[in-house]
Amino acid sequence: MGLWEAMRARVQPRRNDLDALFHVPSAAITLQTALGLEPTGTGSVCYRAAGGAAFAQAQQDVLALIEGDADAPDVTVTQDDFGFTWLVVAGHDGSDLSGLCTDLHAVNTTLELNGFASGLLCSMVPFANAAGQRFGLTYLYKQGTFYPFAPQGGQTRDTLLELSVRDLLVEELPMEPDLQRWLAVWKAPGL
After folding, report:
1. How do beta strands 43-47 and 85-90 pair?
2. Residue 106 CA from chain centroid, whole number
3. What is the distance between the alpha carbons of residues 127 and 100, in angstroms, rounded to a whole number?
4. What are 79-134's pLDDT values in tens digits?
5. Residue 23: CB partners within 8 Å, gap ≥ 6?
6. Alpha-carbon distance 164 to 117, whole Å?
């Protein structure tokens, strides 16, 4: 922080690093070997949709980009109870986590480059194991960090699983240190 920012009590917001999404496949190997958790093949990006033709065009560009391949995954756009839009990419098998992360990166980057970065909230890659434990590895766009969110039925969280995942991945991914920023994204697609 510079002197001028300190005097005005202003800090520069932390810059996100969307390329951190490309570290998720290697983190998935760690999760699989240590906890038996595997990617479900689904991922999503959550954002606040803006009004107007420019946003509609940017969203259509994203859909066309992902759906353009011959073996393209299924892409759906839904809205949650809080008014946020979820663009869900499904149909990647668990072994194509790199392709899924590339698709999520493309969604974030396209919206960012078209001037809609302020509406981006998070990206999520769900994991599950044979015992029925599930969690979403969640990337907070504005912080540039990850955190695990593990709903456990109703409105409760599996805090032990969340902390275990954090401790396991702290060397591989930029994990969010402030637990108050670990948003509960109830009813997130894929969880």
Report:
1. antiparallel
2. 12
3. 13
4. 998 899 999 999 776 678 999 999 999 999 999 999 999 999 999 999 999 888 89
5. 172, 173
6. 31
In sequence order, which residues have a C-beta less than 8 Å from that of residue 2 and are 6 or more positions away?
none
| pLDDT at residue 2, rounded to an integer | 60
Give 153 or 152, the one with higher predicted confidence.
Answer: 152
Buried b (16+ CB within 10 A) or exposed e, 84-104: bbbbbbbebeeebbebbbebb
Judged on CB neighbours under 10 Å (0-12, 13-18, 19+), 142 is middle
- Residues near 164 by beta carbon (within 8 Å), at least 6 away in sequence: 35
pTM assigned to the model: 0.88
**Sequence spans of domains, the chain:** 18-181
